Amino acid sequence: VDAVTPTGSEAFERLLDDETPALCSVAALLGPSDEAFDVVERVWLDVIEEAERGAPFSALSVLAMRRLLERLATPLPLVVASGDERYRPGPFLPDDDRWAGSWEDDGPMPWERLRMDRVLSEDDRDVVVEALHCLPARYRVVVVVRDAGGLPLDDVSWVLGLTRDETRMLLHRARTELVGTIEGLVAPAASGAR
Amino acid sequence: MSALDLTCERAVDLVTDYMEGELGERDQLLYELHVVLCQPCKVHLDRMRRSIGALASLRGGALPVERRQSLVARFTSETPG
Fold it and tell me: Is A103 in a helix, a strand, or coil?
């Protein structure tokens, strides 16, 4: 194990402190939230075993996220089906229109006007969490690992067993769907008009 | 190059690649020009950014101290060095 001696335990402590919040977040959002600490602790024990078997220290953080998803019984690699988009912004003007591809009406309404700025306050974490749980599992996993876990796109691809292009496509669909779902939860009447 | 070189429908498709820094130089410039001039697409970008910010704010906490210490001790005893 490189970088383990003589400051190995210090390096591991830094790794533990840096990565645990992201792992706990992903564990709580993709599994039972009251078991997040237990799962994350078991993941770190897995990682220690990997280090003992010679895994490079630099790979341990991304290995930890992979082991976490495995412990949460996430089917990997994720399936990326073509044409599986559920929500698309719009509508847009048709091809035969002079302004084809432009928003057909005024477009999306700013969230402030729908009183949706509150989704950013800590008191309204429930809205975001509920929206996440409305998503298909594959969307929920990619958006949680990337945006709540904060993994770089390349690491997300490795963790999910996808190509970079597949990851970008899935992430785009997931984020778009999440925005539509948040709006639908907080302002269903206004969203219905969209 | 004009903002009209990019339709709103296409801009919506590019928003994630833009936020991820995945667009080529020309597409990035076109996208930025488009959202400066197109209020609905600017709103769409803002919604995407804010939902990502909301997710990032869900970051979890640290392990309880005793569990952390136990893991560090396990690492120190089980890895070479």
Answer: strand
Residues 10-49 of B with CB under 8 A from A: 10, 12-13, 15-17, 20, 22, 39-41, 43-44, 46-48
Per-residue pLDDT of chain A (194 residues; tens, 9 = 90+): 444 444 588 899 999 999 999 999 999 999 998 999 999 999 999 999 999 998 998 899 999 999 999 999 988 888 877 666 677 888 899 999 988 999 998 888 777 654 555 545 655 677 888 999 999 999 999 999 999 999 999 999 999 999 999 999 999 999 999 999 988 887 754 444 44
Asked if A174 contacts A143 with a C-beta cutoff of 8 angstroms, the reply is yes
Which strand (E) or helix (H) includes residue A73?
none
In angstroms, the CA B35 to CA B44 distance is: 9
pTM for the model stands at 0.88
